Amino acid sequence: MNSSPILQITDLRKSYGQTEVLRGVNLRVNAGQLVCVIGPSGSGKSTMLRCCNLLEVPTAGKILANGHDVLDPRTNVNRMRQDVGMVFQQFNLYSHLTAIQNVSLALRKVQKLGRAETKAAALAALERVGLAHKADAMPAQLSGGQQQRVGIARAIALKPKIILFDEPTSALDPELVDDVLGVMRQLRESGMTMLVVTHEMGFAHAAADHVVFMDGGVVVEEGSAADVFEQPRETRTRSFLSRYISRSTH
Ligand SMILES: Nc1ncnc2c1ncn2[C@@H]1O[C@H](COP(=O)(O)OP(=O)(O)OP(=O)(O)O)[C@@H](O)[C@H]1O
Ligand SMILES: [Mg+2]
Fold first, then answer.
1. Which CATH architecture has domain 5-201+209-248?
2. Which residues, if any, are the signal sequence (predicted)?
3. Which residue has the CA at smallest separation from atom 27 of ligand 1?
């Protein structure tokens, strides 16, 4: 597998007022990798992800995303965001637009395609998430899992070089989680590079090429899924994982 980095984060820091929530994060995602970030609530996972496409402005550090120096004021942010897709926990679909209109809107804003080309590209993206037959449905007529798959279609339609996922299944009823995780696995098989913040430990263990455990605004431990889940080195990782295991067996 190609081992060139699509995303490289170096000594990333972010403060809100006096509180430093990212305290020097280093992280790398290589081309074609699925990297999962796990860690307790408040450890800075979302903040780190949002810094990568400037939804949050870092206080210090360096982020290279597909060659864009994200913090360089000369960087064209819109161009950078075409390469760095994002899928949110709450889907963020427009409720007054159909599935295909939601996907098309993003395409039209970003790529200056004609109407027919936009529609074809949007439909192709919906097909990849198994929802071509729901193209004309309104979000309210879709299950949460289907809405999230539209959110994924919207991201992939723009042909990003990497997609950032922030807990994409956390707002879903348990029976809908697997559909969305299945789509993410397929994306990975198709070669998409993905950075996924998740509380789905089974998914991270089974599907991730690399797992990063964050706590207190730093990366405490990282390695292969087998290393991190089966032989964690750090006490904090062990205690986090044991809480998960005890929760899932109750
Ligand atoms: N806009 C903000 N203003 C002030 N503090 C913030 C802001 N956003 C996040 N924080 C703080 O930064 C810390 C990290 O938050 P973040 O949302 O990144 O954590 P997280 O790891 O994603 O947690 P969770 O698993 O609950 O989603 C938290 O202590 C949070 O309260
Ligand atoms: Mg979060």
1. 3-Layer(aba) Sandwich (3.40)
2. none
3. 41
